[in-house]
Amino acid sequence: MSAEPVLLTVPAQPFEYRFSLAHTALVIIDMQRDFIEPGGFGETLGNDVSLLAAIVPTVQRVLAAWRASGGCVIHTREGHAPDLSDCPPAKRLRGEPKLRIGDEGPMGRILIQGEPGHAIIPELAPTDGEVVIDKPGKGAFYGTGLGEVLEARGITHLIVMGVTTEVCVQTTLREANDRGYDCLLVEDGTESYFPAFKEAALAMIRAQGAIVGWTAPSASLLAVLPT
Questions:
Q1: From the candidates 72, 87, 168, 183, which is the catalytic residue?
Q2: pTM as predicted
Q3: Within the chain, what is the greatest distance between any pair of CA atoms?
């Protein structure tokens, strides 16, 4: 008989979050140059990208510890095919950004797969063996093979970091919740261009007995990971 996996317990809100490394993936959402660095899509929308860049050291620490523990790592990137066949006109034409998806910017065409701006920032670059999910929408499950990847690895729990809290992160958490995954959002490993939106999203996620998921600071997670 195989031994039961060791359960780790994180002090979290609204109550303890328990998981085993063997059945948990660390999911890092959209830490891309187009969102984090000046000249990318985030800045063309009029946002202060330094707010998002501030979480990079925290995400680095958690990623390093997770890698050292031997856990599964999954990265996501939002972007579109060069011919924009997977980008609905409603998405591309909405609002009045300085540059639209597909337009040429300082880091190549905005949010286009293969362009420099589409890449994950160097500080968090995936290593060999880590899964990278390219997604055309906000949620990481829509139009991707993420569900199949998780099922093949026996994953039942997700620990989530990335940007932005109220858009791609929260959408992914809600998609995961509907599919039966227990999710923990690392509070200081996620950020928004609008701090009030982040706080509201955290409150919504953990409300009503973790209706969408749990939240906890990175220190609480790091304290329970094996060294």
A1: 168
A2: 0.97
A3: 61
